[in-house]
Amino acid sequence: MIRLMKIRFALLLCLVSGVAFGASPAASKPVRALLITGGCCHDYELQAKAFVEGSKKFGDITWTVINEGGKSKDAKFALYENPNWAKPYDVVVHNECFADLKDIAYVRKITAAHQAGTPAVVIHCAMHTYRTLAEDDWREFLGVTSRRHDHQSQYPVKAIVTSHPAMRDFPAIWTSPMDELYVIEKLWPNARALATSKSEADGNTYPVVWENSYHGTRVFGTTFGHGNATWHDPAFIALVSRGLLWAAGR
Ligand SMILES: [Zn+2]
């Protein structure tokens, strides 16, 4: 009888200590990241691989990659039909290119999840996705309005807010690999430029890296990321990885 009680006590101790050690703070849990990618004009398979592999160095990130739409300019993701599509994730990365998709009800299924608090990272052609829509919902979420880009070149990038966690270790001047400079028509009121580049075409300076507060939700963005060379550049991988961790609150 005593022996049985001892076994029971030992079992209870195991259970209690198991709970105690299992209850780690949120900061030590992996960041659950969803990457939405696909569409026109870019090698999204390579880009997804480069980001997933390269980001491992910067934090414990569990990735889910949804690469759909082939080279289409107007494909839709079935995922968004579920109103709770973003719930299982700490951060969603938008690196897609569907410039011709014109369906505001569809777009609002995406922005609603971010408005409800799911942080985001927005990269390159995400800024031209849904660009033919008259409504500004997507652009307000991004933090920038852009509808076109300059020619490809190696653009010197000037860090503006060096104290931002995403800009840690970012070189004071970094020259991009061959990439497109997106013409920013408007930086939204709750957005702040973190780095800029100068257009070789019109001489204007445009944000190329920024943060946005979308109804209080963190959004980190960059307009670079066109070619594979950019995704092979360690400074770019560090930037988007640190931006992701910042957006996720880490
Ligand atoms: Zn591009």
> What's the number of extended β-strand segments?
11
CATH C-level: Alpha Beta
Look at the helices and sheets and give the structural class: alpha/beta
Secondary structure tally, helices = 6
Residue share in helices? Answer: 25-40%
Q: Biggest β-sheet: count, sense, barrel? A: 9 strands, mixed
Query: Which strand order do you get reading across the main beta sheet?
Result: 2-1-3-4-11-10-9-6-7
- CATH architecture assignment: 3-Layer(aba) Sandwich
For the record, the count of structural domains works out to 1
Could you state the order of secondary-structure elements as H and E? Answer: HEHEEHEHEEEEEEEHH
Question: Which molecules other than protein and nucleic acid are bound?
Answer: zinc ion
> Kindly state the mean pLDDT as a whole number?
92
Shape: globular
* Corresponding CATH superfamily: Class I glutamine amidotransferase (GATase) domain
Q: Specify Rg, calculated over alpha carbons.
A: 21 Å
Question: What percent of residues are in strands?
Answer: 25-35%
Low-confidence stretches: 1-24
**How far is it from the N-terminal to the C-terminal residue, by CA?**
51 Å
Determine the CATH topology. Rossmann fold
